[in-house]
Specification:
Helix content: 25-40%
Structural class: alpha/beta
CATH superfamily: 2-enoyl-CoA Hydratase, Chain A, domain 1
CATH architecture: Alpha-Beta Complex
Distance between the termini: 65 Å
Strand content: 5-15%
Number of strands: 9
Radius of gyration: 22 Å
CATH topology: 2-enoyl-CoA Hydratase, Chain A, domain 1
C-alpha cells in the first residue's frame, strides 16, 4: 500500500470516535494532563519524566517510577521488603484496619507506603527512600517509620548520603500513638546521621503534609521541592478557622514556602537527578566519579529557583 492510499483510507475512516479515543486512553496509550487537558503519547510523557510537554505540569508519579527516574539502571538493591504492618489496636472504621491493609497490599503489590534501598545516582552511591501516596495516602505508620530508620542507620554506617522522596497525608490514624512515635524515631536517626557529618536531602512532592512535614521532611541539610507541590501541616481550612483570617491563594505551595524560607530550592523533575548528583558531589567531593561533567562539580551551575536576598 502506498503512502497516498494509506492517507486516503484514513480520510474515509473519518475522525476518531469518542469511544475509540476513550479506549486508547484507558489502554494507557495516551495520557490526559489534569491541568491543561492536553493528550500526550504516554511514551513521550514518560521520557519527559511525567511532566506535561504543553504546560509543564508535574503529574503525580509513584514509587516504582521514582526509582526508575533517579537510580541508574540495574543498581537498585531493595531493603526490608518483607516488613509488614500488624493491627495491635484492632482498629476499625468502615472496615477493619487489617482488611484495609491486606486489600491495599494485594492491589498495589506493595507491603506499605515506602520503598527503601541502596543504588547509584549518576554513579554516586546513595540510600534512597521513596514514599508512595497510593498506599493509604502515603500515611506514616510503624512500617514506614521502621524502614526509613533502618535506611538512615545503614547509610550512617556505610557513610552514604540519604535522599527521601516525601509524599504523604501524614500520620496513619489507624495506628494511633504508634504512628506518632515514628516522627521521633526517624528524627533521632537523622540526628545521628548529621552528627556523622553526612548529607540528608528530602525532596517534597505533591502532597507532603501532616506528621511527615512536622518531622523528617523539614530536617534536611538542603530541602528541595517540586514545582507547585502542596506542602504543609494542617489543612488550609483548619488553619483559616484557627487564625480566623483569609490565607493567600498560594498558601502551602512550594513557591510560597520558598519565598518564606522553608524550602531551599524548587527543582523541576527533569533536573532533579542531576541536581541531586551535584549536591552530593559538593558535599562529598571524594566520592564523585572523575568522569562526571564539569557542571556536576561546580557550584556555579546549580540552576534552580532560590529565594531572593
Amino acid at each position: 500500500m502506498s503512502l497516498f492510499d494509506w492517507f486516503a483510507n484514513r480520510q474515509k475512516a473519518g475522525p476518531i470516535s469518542k469511544d475509540r479515543q476513550e479506549r486508547e486512553i484507558a489502554d494507557g496509550l495516551w495520557a490526559k494532563c489534569e491541568a491543561c487537558s492536553v493528550l500526550t503519547y504516554t511514551k513521550d510523557l514518560r521520557t519527559n519524566q511525567m511532566v506535561c510537554l504543553e504546560c509543564n505540569h508535574h503529574i503525580r508519579v509513584y514509587s516504582d517510577e521514582r526509582i526508575r527516574q533517579l537510580i541508574d539502571l540495574n543498581t537498585w538493591i531493595a531493603l526490608d521488603e518483607g516488613l509488614y504492618a500488624t493491627d495491635p489496636l484492632k482498629f476499625r472504621d468502615r472496615k477493619p484496619y487489617s482488611d484495609r491493609l491486606r486489600e491495599t497490599q494485594d492491589k498495589l503489590k506493595l507491603m506499605d507506603a515506602v520503598q527503601t534501598g541502596l543504588g547509584q545516582l549518576e554513579e554516586l552511591p546513595v540510600a534512597l527512600g521513596v514514599m508512595d501516596f497510593r498506599f493509604m495516602g502515603g500515611s506514616m505508620g510503624s512500617v514506614v517509620g521502621e524502614k526509613l530508620t533502618r535506611l538512615i542507620e545503614r547509610a550512617t554506617r556505610e557513610r552514604l548520603p540519604v535522599i527521601i522522596i516525601c509524599a504523604s497525608g501524614g500520620a496513619r490514624m489507624q495506628e494511633g500513638m504508634l504512628s506518632l512515635m515514628q516522627m521521633a524515631k526517624i528524627s533521632g536517626a537523622l540526628e545521628r546521621h548529621r552528627a556523622a557529618r553526612l548529607l540528608y536531602i528530602p525532596v517534597l512532592t505533591h502532597p507532603t503534609t501532616g506528621g511527615v512535614t512536622a518531622s523528617f521532611a523539614m530536617l534536611g541539610d538542603v530541602i528541595l521541592a517540586e514545582p507547585k507541590a502542596t506542602i504543609g501541616f494542617a489543612g488550609r481550612r483548619v488553619v483559616e478557622q484557627t487564625l480566623r483570617e483569609k490565607l493567600p491563594d498560594d498558601f502551602q505551595t512550594a513557591e510560597y514556602l520558598l519565598e518564606h524560607g522553608f524550602v531551599d530550592a524548587i527543582v523541576p523533575r527533569t533536573q532533579l537527578k542531576k541536581t541531586l548528583a551535584q549536591l552530593i558531589c559538593l558535599h562529598q567531593p571524594s566520592i564523585a566519579p572523575t568522569h562526571l561533567p564539569v557542571h556536576l562539580t561546580s557550584a556555579r551551575s546549580l540552576h534552580v529557583a532560590t529565594p531572593e536576598a
